[in-house]
Design goal:
By secondary structure, the chain is mainly α. It contains 17 helices and no strands. It is globular. It is a multi-pass membrane protein.
């Protein structure tokens, strides 16, 4: 495909907008829940974890189905459905008057499937084999940029106006992404795409029997567990650290996430150069151990500045993990079947997005906020051990 780079850039740009719309609530959701009547910090953290986790949980359940539909009907159709749901659910969330209403809207948002596996399959399909690491790095950078700008914009808008206004902004942004898909994304055709349901599901079972696919999927589950686990407690932890007198907690949270994401995006953009010198699985092991160490250091921090510094350092390691795992997965399966395998992989590793917020909210409620940091460090070290053990056996 001659214009493959243009398609990669377009999909990455849409991923940034979709990511902002999906994760922008992280910086102010616990504070918004407090405004809705949850005055106990532990209860607010628990509900924030539940609401944050329900969307990836529903995406995980529905991702294989939507990946199959993308394989049959084309990714453009599925992306239109996903972005339409994000637009409507974000708009409806702005009118919520109780936590359970936000929970319902976020559940519906996740039920129609996620953008990430479809975007990954497009990038993997149109990109030449020798440029896979480069393209995966750019897509990961786009994902990180959504995580960067989402909380920063959400927190800034919430502090400037109120906690409802960001939802309307996210709905508008998702609608712009929807228009971009309709007018600028060409139809993506895959050679040898699956046409019958039985062959598709037999391929799913086959993919999960591939050792490297299975290992990388397990790695991403644990990795996402650690990445998303900090989300529900960070605003409340910083509020406790700063003091209740500050009116800029959401903005500070957004800024810390922004800096961390910037470091992560920088490393993702350069992962292609690194994999030319270091084998992807070795780079992955080193990055995972490093990230575990940085979370352990965050456990010992007691000021906003020091915590923000180590969050930024954490981002550097994070920026290497996903591109390496996706590169290994993409090179382990035939090009014409990557849409299905990324849907299956996404379904499993998104469960980490579910377990992370829910477990961190429960840990914060029972053991205090710092417990989330050391438990996250253990998760990353466990992931590094699993990868090291399995690649040694090969």
């Amino acid at each position: 495909m001659k214009n493959w780079k243009s398609i990669v850039y377009l999909v990455c740009a849409i991923q940034v907008g979709a990511g902002i719309s999906m994760v922008g609530v992280m910086s102010f959701l616990p504070l918004f829940l407090s405004e809705l009547g949850l005055t106990d910090p532990g209860e607010a953290a628990f509900w924030a974890g539940l609401i944050t986790g329900v969307t990836p949980f529903m995406i995980a359940l529905s991702a294989p189905f939507w990946s199959i539909q993308a394989d049959r009907r084309g990714p453009k159709v599925v992306m239109t459905i996903v972005l339409s749901a994000v637009t409507l659910s974000s708009l409806a969330s702005g009118f919520s008057t109780a936590p359970w209403q936000i929970l319902i809207f976020r559940t519906l948002q996740g039920l129609v499937g996620g953008f990430v596996p479809i975007g990954l399959s497009i990038v993997a399909t149109v990109t030449p084999e020798h440029k896979t690491s480069w393209a995966m790095g750019y897509f990961q950078a786009a994902m990180v940029m959504g995580i960067m700008f989402g909380p920063l914009l959400g927190g800034s808008i919430a502090d400037t106006f109120d906690y409802r206004t960001p939802f309307f902004f996210f709905a508008f942004l998702a609608f712009l992404c929807l228009l971009s898909v309709q007018f600028f994304l060409p139809p993506i055709h895959r050679k040898g795409a699956s046409k019958d349901r039985s062959s598709t599901f037999s391929q799913i079972l086959y993919f999960m029997k591939i050792p490297r696919v299975r290992i990388m999927t397990f790695m991403q589950f644990l990795c996402n567990f650690g990445i998303t686990g900090i989300g529900p407690i960070l605003p409340l932890y910083l509020k406790q650290m700063i003091g209740t007198s500050s009116d800029l907690v959401a903005t500070i949270v957004g800024f810390i996430i922004f800096i961390s994401g910037g470091c992560s995006a920088f490393m993702s953009l350069n992962v292609g150069r690194l994999t030319e010198r270091i084998r992807p699985h070795r780079l992955l092991i080193g990055a995972t151990i490093f990230v575990g160490f940085t979370f352990f250091m965050q456990y010992h921090m007691h000021t906003v500045e020091s915590l923000g510094f180590w969050r930024a350092i954490t981002g550097m390691g994070m920026g290497l993990i996903a591109p390496c795992t996706n590169t290994i997965i993409a090179k382990s399966v035939p090009p014409e079947t990557r849409s299905i395998v990324f849907g299956v992989v996404s379904s499993i590793f998104l469960m980490g997005n579910v377990a992370g917020p829910v477990c961190s909210g429960a840990l914060a409620r029972w053991l205090g906020y710092p417990s989330v940091f050391w438990s996250t460090a253990i998760a990353f070290w466990l992931a590094a051990f699993v990868i090291l053990w399995n690649f040694r056996k090969e």
